[in-house]
Design goal:
The chain is mostly beta strands and about 120 residues long. It has no helices and 11 strands. Strands 2, 4, 5, 6, 9, 10 and 11 form a 7-stranded mixed beta sheet that branches. A 4-stranded antiparallel beta sheet has the order 1-3-8-7, with no helix packed on it.
């Protein structure tokens, strides 16, 4: 199983970025997908998470520091998760990691898998 993030980069304060993550390999089922971030000298923190499609039969959750600015979404058919980040602030600068709680075998062997991370830098 492999998770690959893309979409990071350098953006000015107030700007927007959209991160993408695709999960590939032996995947029977994905329960939840999440975005974490880690800034230099700080612990990794959960930014947003989504179960199902985030609506109706699922749920989307956001950290307090990103509520109202970030939106998580998911394409369940493509095993992809996105993070739309608007009104970015310098304090959003971090390496952003994709996480998936998935079953690779079909026997409910759920475990967490991580991507390699993508750098987001917010600076003028």
């Amino acid at each position: 199983v492999q998770l690959v993030e893309s979409g990071g980069g350098l953006v000015q304060p107030g700007g927007s970025l959209r991160l993408s993550c695709v999960a590939s390999g032996s995947i029977a089922s994905i329960y939840a997908m999440s975005w974490y971030r880690q800034a230099p000298g700080k612990q990794r923190e959960l930014v947003a998470a989504i179960t199902g499609d985030g609506h109706g039969d699922g749920h989307a959750w956001y950290g307090d520091t990103v509520k109202g600015r970030f939106t998580i979404s998911r394409d369940m058919d493509k095993n992809m998760v996105y993070l739309q980040m608007n009104n970015l602030k310098p304090e959003d600068t971090a390496v952003y990691y994709c996480n998936a709680d998935l079953d690779p075998t079909g026997y409910s062997d759920y475990d967490e898998y991580w991507g390699q991370g993508t750098q987001v830098t917010v600076s003028s």
